[in-house]
Write a structure and sequence with these properties.
This protein is 73% helix and 0% strand.
């Protein structure tokens, strides 16, 4: 079984973490304010999603192949 490139692995993990964070923030906003998080919170999250994913993937420790 071939392994993915370590940077690609970290990118996939960062996508999952950012997706989870976006859902949690939107749910908390909806729960606290009683208002739908659309459009303000969701649009802001979409803008931050790319930056957050890139920063998490690039700043993560890398596993070297041997």
């Amino acid at each position: 079984m071939s392994r993915l490139d370590p940077l690609l692995e970290e990118f996939v993990i960062a996508l999952g973490l950012m997706s989870t964070l976006a859902v949690v923030v939107a749910a908390i906003y909806w729960w606290v304010t009683g208002q739908s998080p659309w459009p303000y919170v969701v649009i802001a999250e979409v803008g931050a999603f790319g930056w957050g994913t890139a920063m998490l993937a690039l700043a993560s420790p890398r596993n070297r192949r041997r």
